[in-house]
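Exam prep: given the inputs below (a chain plus thiamine diphosphate), describe the expected output before reading on.
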Amino acid sequence: MTKPVTPTLDRVAGPADLREMSDRELCSVADELRAEVIEAVSQTGGHLGSSLGVVELSVAIHAVFDTPRDKLIWDVGHQCYPHKILTGRRNRMHTLRQGGGLSGFTKRSESEFDPFGAAHSSTSISAALGFTVGRDMGRPTGDAVAVIGDGSISAGMAYEAMNNAGAEGRRLFVILNDNEMSIAPPVGAMSSYLSGLADLSRIGPFGGLAAVAEGMEQLAPKPVREGARRAREMVTGLESKGTFFEELGFDYIGPIDGHDMGQLLSVLRSARTRATGPVLIHCCTVKGKGYAPAEGSADKYHGVSKFDVGTGVQAKAKANAPSYTGVFGDALTALAAEDPNIVAVTAAMPSGTGVDRMAKRFPSRVFDVGIAEQHGVTFAAGMAASGLKPFCAIYSTFLQRGYDQVVHDVALQGLPVRFAIDRAGLVGADGATHAGAFDIGYLSALPGMVVMAAADEAELVHMVATAAAHDTGPIAFRYPRGNGTGVALPERGEVLEIGKGRIIREG
Ligand SMILES: Cc1ncc(C[n+]2csc(CCOP(=O)(O)OP(=O)(O)O)c2C)c(N)n1
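Solution:
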């Protein structure tokens, strides 16, 4: 009788077990892990596409680095499902994103393998740099590895961190997980620049293992590096300047194939052995990798509800009323059709905020600034100062990122920026980091700021009209996640009296 084969993943109680495995076994772990992530998320819903893109990366990092002594910090943390399975939480994956269950993000209180909590983007390099200072000042902590996506690296905080890290010169690993997607396709000059770098790897001598060799060269002493660069210029005829990251003081490795376990392991091992300062490893990955319905979808299955693994069809909750987001998007579009001065700003969330509806009709008047809430708010303030009527559509929780800009650039200057604040109040499965709990407090404290809360979707239509008509200072209106109450929608929004509420019940 032949002995039954134990799946390789079953032999992984924690990352230490990965370090005992051959490279071939690590490939098997990755394959089984991918299938398990798909199965688990089909039962709970969650951030599937992002997690599928980092399956090999998760296995390789834990196999090469000494976690939890080495600190692995996932930016946003929404891609951490494979990491959770590998770090002792496999049997709790069925509780993901449910009350009392596993968080959908990294969370310090959940595991020693989550050294830093996240959910808002672009914090990982700053936090990782903090750990390197702790290490260098004798704290019992090893290396720090930040994994950040091409969407998340568009935010100012990531550049502030790289600016600081390059000057500090401490040994630090930043892995750029470049899947050429944010939630929507990424925007901005940096995104084009990264695409250019990734494209360069596909021509001639940069492809495949040559790219790894090129990566090794980046860790070589400067004269060797210069020689290799000149050789590269001779072969390709392209002038080779340093990358943006090198100019900031990082060693740049890549781009490499983030799904090729061999490449990943050899580059990570080499970097870990030889790095003395900050290193950026540019990994090209595919969002939704290995699951056809995800790879084929417009947002690569960024966030999904429960779904059928065979067909990829997601469960749809029965809705008796339109979503607040949709009602806002339609009301704004209707007003934009009448008033050419109305413009809209989103920070990487065109469909999440509903401004994609206006963008379909008036593409040149809707601005997706990328994950850049701070810039988005001040950009809107500038447009308001020029006489335009900007609607700045940002979720309550993410507007926190742009608070000084709301105070200093909008409120203190009395500029009529209209804040459309979606996901106000509790948000359910995304948890505390995403709850819109603070906006009433942080906005009501500001001079001249009007704050409105819609009690139903008809009132939201009136508030959009009220905000459009309010030219004397800043105004905000908040509304919850999900569907309205089912009331009839007005034909047109009417301007509401400021300072007057609706009495629902006396007493
Ligand atoms: C400050 C902030 N703004 C917006 C978001 C919403 N958000 C979550 S993930 C994401 C896209 C991230 O893209 P990327 O870093 O490329 O990761 P991917 O999902 O593509 O792997 C956005 C905009 C957030 N988490 N934090």
